[in-house]
Amino acid sequence: MERHTDRTRGVAPVANTPGAEKFLLAAKRAEICSLRQLAESCELVTAVSDLVHQLQRERGMSNIFLASGGARFRGQWQEQMDLVRRSSERLQRQLYLRYLKQEGAAGMRLLNSIAYSLQGLDDLDGLRVQVEQLAIAPLDSTRAFCRLIGGLLSIVFEAADVADDPAVTRMLVAMFNFMQAKEYAGQERAWGAIGFARSRFDSVLHDRLSHLQEAQHRSVEVFIEFAEASDQARWQGIENSPPAQDLNRLRRVIRGLADGEPIAAELSEVWYELATQRIDCMHSLEDHLAGRLLDISRQRVAEAESELEDHHARIHALKAIVCPNTSPLTMLSDPEVPGLYGAGEGAAKEAAAECVPPAQGLTPNLARSIYDLIRGQAHRIKQMGDELNDARRALTERKQVERAKGVLMRNLGLSEAAAYRKMQRRAMACNLRLADVAATIIEIGEKAAEKSTQA
Amino acid sequence: MERHTDRTRGVAPVANTPGAEKFLLAAKRAEICSLRQLAESCELVTAVSDLVHQLQRERGMSNIFLASGGARFRGQWQEQMDLVRRSSERLQRQLYLRYLKQEGAAGMRLLNSIAYSLQGLDDLDGLRVQVEQLAIAPLDSTRAFCRLIGGLLSIVFEAADVADDPAVTRMLVAMFNFMQAKEYAGQERAWGAIGFARSRFDSVLHDRLSHLQEAQHRSVEVFIEFAEASDQARWQGIENSPPAQDLNRLRRVIRGLADGEPIAAELSEVWYELATQRIDCMHSLEDHLAGRLLDISRQRVAEAESELEDHHARIHALKAIVCPNTSPLTMLSDPEVPGLYGAGEGAAKEAAAECVPPAQGLTPNLARSIYDLIRGQAHRIKQMGDELNDARRALTERKQVERAKGVLMRNLGLSEAAAYRKMQRRAMACNLRLADVAATIIEIGEKAAEKSTQA
């Protein structure tokens, strides 16, 4: 009878004093919810990757169309515009269904970077009219495309930056850096084409090309750090392929030219063709990465869902078995939980020396179980947090390096390339990571800025 | 008529091709939603801060009750248990209303740290029975309380770690570090009381006390970095107050004792009383911080809400004015938007040299406006991100230092204090920040671990 009353009385408090297991389950549901959002972001990234590729192609064709005074590539350009339009419509439909029909499906930063790019996309037809009428310089058209592509890439960056699952974040970091490398490759192609069109490469152009090659290299390095072995091998395959090798030879020819030394404009087509072949290979690796990104993100949702079911089953089983009078094992008595500083080292012995009998009345194996679930989840979260920090580091350091570069450009009046080289030299001289040098520069730069406003 | 058709045709696409301004508004709504969640987390932090304080008091009283074999503090302890119960019920009611009745109001990590602490709270009555029956050693009781308090502090840490508004995050980082300092002060009080109760301080105890004093100092330093000038002044007031000065004198007396040199047990009460007075002063500063935390977080919600209204009004006004045939200014033609590498430096001149007339037909001042809204918001988000990184750095570095300490303890078999001192010495010798040393240790430690599993 006593027991029955206990159980009856137990019903009311449950409604407003929450049990630990309810929060355990709520935490798991929150994880599932955020993994679902993440899977949707990954689909978005896939659509963005396709649109970026189509825009990169249109950029190249518009460039040639303009440079040839409308003589070349008219047909191909028209077809390409259709591909861009279709890709753009697909993306916009996705955006509407995912983020406007259901609120709360993405954060402020992702949504704003979408707004930013959409406004650029809206203006694309205006740009095309100018291209059609030959009313814009090739360089200006290229710049407009680059801005739009840069905006779309920032969507991918934001998706990676807010992801909170380590496996998916790693893939997103790899994907973002690969897309970035491909865009640098596209810009290298554009500047190279400009040099050939002018039949000369001056020192400014040399500097730009080498900076873009370095930038590709750096992005690829981060990609390799976070990619799987099979993708690394695919990348090696691309770099060892005949067009990439031929492109390297042509890069060396350009590098060997003195400032302003003339070069045959006819090489322009060879340059363009080789660079394009390499970029197309990069795109097929990118497609492959996008496919796996989708697989992994969906798999993580499924895993978390089955973990939730498992939690439910275990809690249900425990409630049926555990006798209400036994106190469960909790963090209070877990020697592995740190609490009092210094009590870990030899404290157990001290306690034993003070001769108090251990607490009785527990059936440890059963009582552990709910606590085990909570601890297990806490442990997993901690581990995920560490892995996540490592993956995000690659993104944050990138941001830090950009920010530090800005400080040097402003304060010392350096060009972007010079600022970067300065940081690189300092890192090598002091055996520091580039990011650590960047952090110091930002700190010093901001103190200097504070002082100058105070003065 | 032409115009009319245009407008009619315009209606359908709006429904499924999203306009940039819709995402601009969605981004602002997402910000408001996340600020509201943050304001709720701040209320939670306030409730946790109160419960931690009450538990710290109960911990001290239980300790004296146990050490005196049940002779002292029985009445005060009973009263204190009621205060803890009331504070705990308040917190649990809040938790239930905020996080279980409405799903999606918090992330996995915050919810799991809540589950973890709640399970500990559930076990508190079991601990009290042991204390009442004198069936637990004072040290074990202290350890149990420390674990529970550590769990509750981790709720505050999680709330700070997931916050994405710089102003609120700064306050949360200050608050968390101050709470942490206060907890170290409580642990120092406990170890001091143990030393006096034994009438001697051995080298192990000396080491612990000095480590806890250093730990307070480090946490207070971070608090000061993120606190406002008035709070820094309040803190100075506490440190200069007579009880804090007297406590410092007593600390020096203890430090001057040789290993095992006897000291009057009667000083125990003086020690306890002085430490308690200082901790109570810290609590009133903590209450003050909590109050401002709530104010700031609510103010941020109100600000974002009025920004949303402003966005609506501006977009509405623009739609009424802008002639549908003028193409708006977008990122595509904004010279401030980086896109093509190298095109910033002198590219405008190059473009001008190629002699293309600028695009016509814009009414720039009007057309800029929607784009201005989007750019303004993007700029603010970027700035907030930088500020946020700076505030989060303090939390991440803390985690990194803890993780590196663990690597050294495992790999070199060092004690916690020795591991910390080793890192500190290395940082000073190489003129590096502690966090940079920690990052290197983690990197090396993990490579070593990978190698040993491969071998």
TrEMBL record, chains A, B:
Residues 294-321 form a coiled coil. Residues 381-442 form the ANTAR domain. Keywords: Coiled coil. It holds the Pfam family NIT. InterPro entries: ANTAR, CheY-like_superfamily, Nitrate/nitrite_sensing, WH-like_DNA-bd_sf. This is Nitrate- and nitrite sensing domain-containing protein. It comes from Microbulbifer celer.
